[in-house]
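Standup notes
- DV: blocked on the single-chain target, sequence here:
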Amino acid sequence: MKKIIINGGKRLSGKIKIDGSKNAALALIPASLLTKDVVTLENVPDISDIHEMLDILNILNVSYEFIDNKLTIDSSRIINTPLIKKNIEKIRASYYFMGALLSLFQNVQIIAPGGCKIGNRPINYHLNGFRKMGINVNEMDNVFNMSYVILNNTTIKLPFPSVGATINLVLAAVKSDNIIIIDNISCEPEVNQVIDFLKSCGARIKKIGHNTLIIIGTAKLKGTTFKVMNDRIEAGTYCILAALLGDNLLIEGINKDHLNSLFTILDKVNADYFIKDNIAYFNKSNLNNPFEIETSPFPLFPTDLQQPICVLGSFLPGQSIIYENIYEDRIAHIKELNKMGADIKIFQNKIIINGRTPLFSNKLKAKDLRGGAALIIAALSAKGTSLIEGVNYIERGYPNIIQKLSNVGADIKMEDS
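- DV (later): unblocked, structure below
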């Protein structure tokens, strides 16, 4: 077990460079298998979730090389092996192998996915979409058995613009002999990445308006080289930290179009920053206005930044309010922040943050990925020395976080418990 030790209260100066997108890369790895060819993915983050996905490639007899953020995948010898080992269920993104293997082999056996415990996360949108396409779905003892019964031209309307369901259905449809229409798709940048990747491989996918896809099945896809976009959630996390502690702190690798909802909030609270090209420049300022946020699908405020921005709310005057509309149990960080002196209350999906409350060091425990990031921001902003456990969650999504923060002046280190 590892622990992070932080001596807080220090201003941060220098540059933090954003890595490739975790959520895009996790979807692109299964998508690469559809080519049965060599695919090179550039700008892949070196995080534990990626290595978990690569372990699944080993099971499928897929060879790969991962060096300096470049991942080369050769799926020419892929085999359709049941994915039922317990380690597979640890990672939420393992469900993308459902769509990929259905596309390749017309059947798959796979254990149900796990992931962070942040609320009800069923995959019924995925499964109902598969059924509409003519796929038989059976579940027994937490294992899904799926196979094509009859291939249907069909229109699938998602009840909610789910990122995972949109990508999974696209993966399942892209090599079929049919025309599949998916309506009310997710418009998150990570979904667009998967679509752009598949089109570069020869897939025939057309977007109608903002939320409808027409997929005309293509039997043969070819290998390609594709660059993963930068991680907008990592970027947003460091921007929130920079608004609190920045002293000419630069966040490099920003795509402002991916983070407009966050920068709208930073403008409201009077954060001192400007953006030039792909770099955001921050200095600490007199943050002087509370905010009100509702987490919603892109382009509105992302649920993945709800936990980090709770820390910002504790340093603002007055009362800030967040409505968590996506994951009802994404609240484990609140108990830990209150241990540090924050005044945060929860009423159903409403998070009420009473500021300005000075934060003090404490012994803390991360219980999910983004909550862990929030605790790091809080500990860096607090007086005294804090200890954070549950480091394995943080390592799932923030590459080289200790080194990145040390390089800009944070007093932070990782030790074995």
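- Follow-up: The longest strand covers residues 246-252.
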